[in-house]
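Task: encode each sequence below as structure tokens.

Item 1
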Amino acid sequence: MNKTHILFTINGIIWGVILGALAAYFIGGGVSGLFYIYVFGDNEWPAWFSIVIYFTMALAGLLVFTTCFFLIRRYARHVIENGSSKKGNRQAVISLIIAVLVISGYVILDNKRTDLELRQSQSRLIEHTKRLENTSSTKKPGESDVAYYCRVICRHTGKSVIDYHGYRVKIYTTVLPSDNPLFAVEGPYNAVKMIANEAIITEPIAAGRKELLTGFIPLPIEITCGEGVYFIQAKSSIYSNDLSSLEKVEISLPSIHVLFPMTVWRK
């Protein structure tokens, strides 16, 4: 076996593997697609189908490999019989170089695709984790009461709309029973300060009403939960244990003779 014959034999093996693998990939995908469209669809696929598809892919790859290998060997004999060894050697070497470039290009592209898929998967995981954190009703470690109220409670509570001394305000009807219980008010900051000065949280009982919390303060104007949403917080937590054990309380604004129910946040 001379040099030309060896070079073309190597060519036949390499190109047979490349083209055979491509044939197996596309034939397998095509057969799977046909079965999906015309036979199984979204139903559960039988276990025997994997045997069928792998057999089909192996057969397609083997046929292409064998065809490619023998065609190149036949061409090698033709080159040798015509005495064109130098020309045949050049063709064989060029073909090998192209094969190496094809394989290298595929490896590089596959690595880049894998890296891209990994980055996309990590990005999706991070986004999913953030969505879970943002939608979770559990308080995050180190999360402030105000941040928790904005992130969770504001999305799960109603509002009571009142006319308060010429101001139109909306009081969020959920109180957070923390160390210093708080609730939110939407409206002008001047009205929020006035409400804080007189608000009383009571518990409705059979004999009347039991005062639970008095003495509120408005949090600074820069502490907001969106435009025009401010916070009122209790100065102390003397009755916080009682408050946290309740489901419903009432908030009273004596100056306008208003009393309406509030839910105590329990999560």
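Item 2
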Amino acid sequence: MQTLSLKFSVASRALFIALSLSAVCAGSLAQTKPPGAFATVNGVAVPQSLIDTNVKVNIAQGQRDSPELRQVIQDELINREILAQESARLGLDKTNEAQAQWAQVRQTFLVELLLNDYMARNPIPEATLKTEYERQMALMKDQQQYRLSLIVTSTEEQAKAVLARLRKGEAFAKLATETSLDPSKKDGGNVGWVVPAQILPAISNVMVNLAKGALAAAPIQTPAGWNILKLEETRPFKAPTFDEAKNDIRQMLVQKQRFDYVKKLRENAKVVQ
């Protein structure tokens, strides 16, 4: 087959180049994205900051930052913008139910913004953490520690059925993994070492009277559900180091600080019920 070759005169070549450059420039202008956006969808800019935020969330959950991860996130964000636009086009956001849900989402977002801002402006000093650590250690130094295993079910009937299977010899760890609602199920129901003051009285009052290796005689009801309790072993209280306890203490103090802040704001608010 003969190859087709194109031959231009100087004038026609200049005109061709000019037209080509015009086409490229026009295409570039049509595809220009606003500053700070990684894409536009039907003319709506999708901010680069959304990618950065989602990458950070994925890294915090154990993912590795990579071009592949960013591409998946980018595609998902574009899809979500397309879906959001279609939802708005259909007027789905105008219903009373949608408006009520949106108001709740907005309120939750504002609450988290406020509390995070408050905590950033009022960080808990290291000295406060150490003082609280010393106070807790002084309270616990003469206490006994108990290593527990736990299975939590949503109903008493389910708990009784699991308890019956345990009494027939089925392994506690196996049943905890299969049936428990508690996060400890991933460890076969193992809760670890606790002192009575750390847990609900409904459980601690039973725990302190169990023999090593024994099951509680009946399921125990708490707000989390119906609890099947097994005492694995006991020991005199073994104090964690400050570094080991610091994060738990900080979390406890943060919760108290947030509670006190909300209480103060409520006392100064005009509430009519």
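Check on item 2: Residues 143-236 form a domain with the Chitinase A; domain 3 fold (CATH 3.10.50.40). The chain is about 55% helix and 15% strand.
End of task.
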